[in-house]
Amino acid sequence: xxxxxxxxxxxxxxxxxxxxxxxxxxxxxxxxxxxxxxxxxxxxxxxxxxxxxxxxxxxxxxxxxxxxxxxxxxxxxxxxxxxxxxxxxxxxxxxxxxxxxxxxxxxxxxxxxxxxxxxxxxxxxxxxxxxxxxxxxxxxxxxxxxxxxxxxxxxxxxxxxxxxxxxxxxxxxxxxxxxxxxxxxxxxxxxxxxxxxxxxxxxxxxxxxxxxxxxxxxxxxxxxxxxxxxxxxxxxxxxxxxxxxxxxxxxxx
Length: 253
Hints:
The chain is of the alpha/beta class. It has one domain (3-246): Rossmann fold. It has helices at 16-27, 39-49, 63-77, 104-129, 159-179, 204-212, 223-235; strands spanning 7-11, 31-36, 53-57, 82-85, 96-97, 100-101, 141-146, 184-191, 243-246. The strands form two sheets. A seven-stranded parallel sheet has the order 3-2-1-4-7-8-9, with helices on both faces. The chain has a two-stranded antiparallel sheet with strand order 5-6. Helix 1 packs across helix 7, helix 3 runs parallel beside helix 4 (104-129) and helix 4 (104-129) packs parallel to helix 5. The longest helix has 26 residues, at 104-129.
């Protein structure tokens, strides 16, 4: 399988890593359904990118919205074969911050978007994939999750974020063992520091320090590099049940 014959759903596809992936799939002739809460940006992309793209306004934490959008995309494209979860928030905050202990609602919000959202997309895509015929290689679909190196080396203030990304990493192998029987592969990418809107509120001084902490290349990753990693996963059937670090050998301090 490759991007040219891809019928994909991408959560968080209206910006950041998700947008870069959408653009890469479209450039190679694939079709993409964008699931995102940002309807202004999503509709703009739908108009700009043409008939290969369909936008669905979706709160990734709401199972009915996720299921309905995935069903609609499947009907529109006459099938699906790729699901990529890019929706997420940083959720920075200390357990005991300046304004007091971390609010439970804050922690739950990060869990709902980053973890529950990933689960819901996986479930919605998998139930579509299992009902479809196999391709020539015996495959029905590929699922890719966006984890983070914070799953392994979380920084101060990332208690909520790291917890969700660690949980995503923990889901991959048991899901692969279950879904492989149906010709479905599942992988995760753990990016390091990438130049996405998540860093918009970070000062230039901190950005320089972050770049300097990456052994090589000493810079932020690009959305094109993330998309290329997804492309590799899609095209290489031996990639299954694992997490790939995409981080320039960075280790968070």
